[in-house]
Write a structure and sequence with these properties.
The complex is a heterodimer of chains A (about 200) and B (about 800). With about 200 residues, chain A is mainly alpha-helical. Chain A is about 70% helix and about 5% strand. The termini of chain A are far apart. The longest helix of chain B is centred in the last third of the chain and has 24 residues, at about 795-820. Chain B has 4 domains: about 5-235, ATP-grasp fold, A domain (Dna Ligase, domain 1, 2-Layer Sandwich); about 240-335, ATP-grasp fold, B domain (D-amino Acid Aminotransferase, Chain A, domain 1), CATH 3.30.470.20; about 390-515, 3-Layer(bba) Sandwich (Glucose Oxidase, domain 1), CATH 3.50.30; about 535-815, Phosphoenolpyruvate-binding domains (TIM Barrel), CATH 3.20.20.60. Chain B is elongated and about 110 Å long. Classes of the chains: A mainly alpha (about 200), B alpha/beta (about 800).
Chain lengths: ~200, ~800
């Protein structure tokens, strides 16, 4: 099955977030809401996604999830043996471990500015790293944009944009990226967390 | 000290001039002025930062002045920087702006090591492993902060060379290590100097550059801070806890940070560095168990701690190092403390006459009050559970909090059960973003794998939810929906209790409640808060009667609370179907039940009480009354069924007379005009000892606020009801605290109706006007307080936080007024 890019973007958004509203899908894909809705309706017709109430969409088990993973396989299986990609991923995990550590340090510091600064510097580094990676996965430019948007809020003093779960916060974007890169590489999440968590 | 007059020894500068010297140097100057033992330091003042920016580079005279200042540090410390003999001088370089802001360079430690310095330091301390760690630490910080190279990648790249040099430190292995570092940095696109003088200059420049970083500029722009303030640079000699005997490092608290008990508390590591104490790799000695030469040092520390407390008038955290038998204080700052300790310390400092009541109110945070009022496991129950062997396992405590619920292993089912009102403990192998909805629904999260920085830990802290991770004894089986702990198998649905602060998982549901002593201590502080803010915070809502403090609530809530709602509702229903002129039989029941309910309430509750009379137009009335649809439309008006209202009022009046109360008011909800209120007052009767008032719930009433105020009667503006009708939003959706504790009230003051209200309020002249606040209306409450509103009604769970918030707001306004002359 060959999904067009737009359908894939929406399908992947629902896959990564599991339960998601059209507003959040707009943050994720930057696509107009009505276009997202029409893709979701298509996916629903094919039995891959469903509106579960309250404006939330989920993938149908197992067809939707299978389709999402198959789309990854189809698009990215070539990358999985590329040494450049694997090296980049190793760096990602080094950054990821530091990010989690500094984020925890900030959360438990009582909002210390120096601790927050460390978090932000790591996001700067992640943005830089992503910029060098968009040649491999062009849609990762969207993560750069989302990180920059969230950072702009944080820098203006709205620190809820660091970890809030209801906003497109730095933390939400980072975790989604982590989930995404793991799936790009075809590695199950549990294994990665046991190694690095 | 200098040609430029921009570089100063911290001894002798004015410790109050934070603008010129930055916070760090000013703090050191204050300590030096008190003759406290601080390692020697100098500061490059903030104007150098501005000078450099405007002239496009560091002037050569400034470089020369820094050299002179370094020479003075060498003399003071008896060490030599970058060459020479004996122990090498290592320094820390820190930024120091008047206001701390993100984007500013933090700290570079251990600057001053090169190949020769590393060999000399190893000769002095006899520990090549320590020397190499110190050196790696320097390069990691220098890479991170000055060169913007990932420090962890650097550490990994040089670990082999580091290990070789630590095993056998020679000129060759040290040189090989340095070469590896330089090569790695070159691969990352950076030219890294190895001469400590060049490193020092580059670090100072990096501090100045960080003032101009995009992030710092954004912050300043957003907060209206001038770009011309600049940052200072503080350079301080490093001391080492592993040079000579006695030596060591530690941390001391002037009071116990867990309980607030006034006694020097802390620990030290003989012959060790501070980071080893923090890392927990070595077992330190408690200060109270000091032996040998340390006894005198601890006495010295105790005396210093007492002096410092008098100066800072707060409980302090003191980092110290002993080098060659000399005690140095590295850092002194207000100690981090538990909510319980914050309360104890604040009240004790007031008792000791060290701080005023106003100061004490700044020493406890709103978040700490939230913690103090959050229900916790009863300690006796916890002790009993431990004694019974009901601690099933202990994992890594990842996010504090106490919670009990039923075991669930699937996030979807967790969300379903929560929707049914069942508290849930979500137990997972690990969590991922795909489990979020389940985590939000759960009372507590437990994972089999992962550490304190795992996804589960980070998210739970963001959600402010109890979380225990890394429970190695637990085996989660998602297919069979069971969890095996040790040898015992638990199926979904069994009750568990989780303590996120200790990491314990208990069998069964431990009861949750509030400690009596803590509640009393909190009430003391909050009574000071009420005096400071001159505000009355009333409780409202169905749980208002659980706390202490004045209460405003519906008569229906009182009937429910006293178990008399059923006969009351039945009587109203009967009356609806048999509209006899006075509904004699039903009316008698209504009056009697009201009277008994109020009597029960008065017997248990001595505090001021305002009762909202039943309103038939509410969703609740529709739900309660079987025959609601049989009501005539005009009966739904506030004064549409006076017969019912009269019997309720008679019941209240009777109970008030029986109890001899003079602090009870009856309120009519939903009024539209001041004339309605006067008709209601006639029903109550002027002879009654019951006060009369109204709750304004619709826009028409609020538009005539001035007219209502002229009545001189008790008035409440019911903001949630107004927002619901005027803004067309449901208040529980928008205004209830969101799961992760975001504060959605931030923009409330800009909502059209609220903005109008804030404008119109000052015109309403009369007796105190109260405002019923939405669930998280903290910021709005401070806006209203600024306008002169002194009476608020808040949900019971937020009442305590609101009382402190209003006091802190009053204090802040006063200081601002003082600043503005």
């Amino acid at each position: 099955m060959n999904l067009p890019d737009e359908s894939y973007a929406v399908l992947n958004g629902v896959y990564l977030r599991k339960m998601v509203t059209i507003d959040v899908l707009h943050d994720i894909t930057a696509m107009p809401a009505d276009e997202i809705r029409s893709v979701l309706d298509d996916l629903a017709t094919q039995g891959m996604a469903a509106d579960v109430g309250g404006g939330n969409w989920m993938l149908e088990q197992p067809d939707g999830v299978r389709a999402a993973i198959a789309a990854y396989d189809e698009r990215y299986s070539d990358l999985r043996t590329s040494q450049d990609v694997l090296t980049w991923y190793e760096r990602f995990e080094v950054l990821n471990a530091q990010f989690l550590k500094t984020l925890s340090a900030w959360q438990t510091s009582g909002s210390d500015d120096a601790a927050l600064d460390k978090v932000l510097r790591l996001v700067d580094r992640q943005i830089k790293a992503l910029t060098s990676f968009v040649g491999f996965v062009p849609r990762y430019q969207r993560y750069v944009d989302r990180f920059e948007a969230a950072m702009e809020k944080v820098e203006a003093g709205h620190t809820e944009w660091v970890t809030s779960l209801t906003l497109d916060s730095v933390h939400n974007v980072w975790f989604e990226l982590h989930e995404d890169i793991l799936t790009v590489l075809g590695r199950p999440r549990d294994v990665a967390e046991a190694e690095h968590g | 000290m200098s040609a430029t007059n921009l570089v100063h020894d911290v001894v002798g500068i004015d410790g109050r001039d934070v603008a010129r010297f930055g916070g760090k140097a000013a703090g050191l100057a204050r300590m030096a002025a008190m003759q406290l033992p601080v390692p020697p330091a100098f500061v490059i003042e903030t104007s150098a930062c501005v000078l450099r920016r405007d002239s496009g580079g560091v002037p050569p005279e400034l470089v020369a002045d820094v050299r002179d200042a370094m020479n003075l540090l060498e003399q003071r410390a008896g060490k030599s920087f970058a060459g020479g003999d004996g122990v090498p001088l290592l320094v820390s370089v820190r930024s120091g702006a008047q206001i701390s802001m993100p984007g500013m360079m933090d700290t570079v430690l251990n600057l001053g090591l090169d190949v020769g310095g590393a060999l000399r330091l190893a000769a002095a301390c006899g520990d090549p492993g320590f020397v190499m760690d110190t050196w790696v630490r320097f390069w990691a910080m220098y890479a991170d902060i000055v060169l913007d190279v990932d420090p962890e990648v650097l550490r990994q790249a040089v670990s082999g060379a580091r290990d070789a040099a630590a095993a056998s430190l020679t000129k060759q292995t040290a040189q090989a290590f340095e070469d590896t570092v330089v090569q790695h940095l070159r691969d990352e696109g950076c030219i890294a100097p190895t001469d400590p003088w060049d490193q020092l200059t580059a670090t100072v420049e990096a501090v100045f550059d960080s003032w101009e970083s995009r992030r710092a500029r954004t912050y300043r722009k957003h907060h209206g801070i001038s770009d011309d303030l600049g940052t200072a640079v503080t350079v301080q000699a490093m001391v080492f806890g592993n040079l000579g005997t006695p030596s060591g490092s530690g941390v001391a608290f002037t009071r116990d940070p867990a309980t607030g008990h006034p006694q020097l508390y802390g620990e030290y590591l003989s012959g060790g560095q501070g980071e080893e104490v923090v890392a927990g790799t070595h077992t330190p000695t408690h200060l109270s168990a000091a032996e040998g030469e340390w006894v005198a040092l601890v006495e010295q520390l105790t005396a210093l701690g007492a002096r410092l407390e008098l100066e800072y008038r707060d409980a302090l955290d003191i980092e110290f190092t002993v080098e060659e038998g000399v005690l140095y204080l590295l850092q002194v700052r207000p100690a981090k403390r538990t909510a319980q300790a914050a309360l104890t310390i604040a009240t004790q400092l007031v008792e000791d006459g060290q701080i005023s009541v106003e100061d004490a109110l700044q020493r406890v945070s709103i978040d700490q009050v939230a913690i103090l009022v959050t229900p916790r496991f009863d300690q006796a129950e916890v002790d009993a559970a431990r004694a019974r062997g009901d601690v099933l396992t202990t994992g890594i405590a990842a996010s504090p909090g106490h919670a009990a619920g039923v075991l669930v292993v699937d996030p979807d089912r967790a969300a379903d059960l929560e929707a049914e009102g069942l508290p849930v403990v979500l137990v997972r192998p690990t969590t991922s973003p795909q489990d979020l909805h389940g985590m939000i629904a759960a009372q507590a999260v437990v994972t089999q794998r992962g550490g304190a920085t795992s996804h589960a830990a980070v998210v739970s802290r963001a959600l402010d939810k109890a979380c225990v991770v890394g429970c190695e004894d637990i085996e989660v089986d998602l297919d069979s929906r069971t969890v095996t702990i040790g040898t015992e198998v638990f199926e979904e649905g069994v009750a568990l209790s989780v303590d996120g602060a200790t990491g314990e998982i208990f069998r069964g549901a431990l009861p949750l409640g509030r400690g009596r002593d803590e509640a009393l201590a909190l009430e003391t502080v909050l009574s000071w808060a009420d005096l400071a803010s001159r505000a009355d915070v009333w409780r409202t809502g169905s749980d208002a009667l659980g706390g202490n403090g004045p209460v405003t609530l519906g008569l229906v809530d009182v009937l429910a609370w006293t178990g008399r709602l059923e006969p009351f509702v039945a009587a109203v229903d009967t009356w609806v179907l048999e509209p006899s002129p006075d509904g004699a039989a039903s009316g008698d029941v209504i009056e009697a039940e009201t009277r008994k309910a109020c009597a029960d309430l008065f017997a248990q509750h001595q505090l001021p009480l305002q009762l909202r009379m039943p309103s038939l137009s509410t969703a609740r009335a529709r739900r309660l009354l079987d025959h609601w649809t049989a009501l005539a439309p005009q009966q739904l008006e506030p004064l549409g069924w006076t017969g019912l209202l009269e019997r309720c009022l008679a019941g209240v009046a009777g109970a008030v007379a029986d109890a001899g109360r003079t602090d009870v008011a009856v309120l009519l909800a939903g009024v539209t005009t001041p004339e309605d209120l006067e008709r209601f007052a006639e029903l109550v009767g002027e002879q009654s000892s019951v006060e009369v008032g109204a709750v304004l719930q619709n826009a028409a009433a609020v538009f005539d606020m001035v007219g209502f105020a002229a009545s001189g009667r008790t008035l409440w503006i019911d903001l949630p009801a107004l927002i619901r009708s005027v803004e067309g939003r449901t208040d529980d959706l928008l205004l209830a605290p969101t799961p992760e504790g975001d504060r959605p009230d931030r923009g409330l003051s800009s909502w059209p109706l609220v903005a109008w209200l804030l404008d119109a309020l000052p015109a309403a002249d009369g007796p105190p006007l109260g405002v019923v606040l939405p669930a998280s209306g903290g910021a709005l409450a401070t806006d209203l307080h600024s306008l002169g509103v002194r009476r608020f009604a808040s949900s019971s769970v937020h009442a305590e936080q609101l009382r402190l918030l209003l006091a802190q707001h009053t204090h802040q306004r006063r200081s601002e007024e003082k600043d503005n002359g």
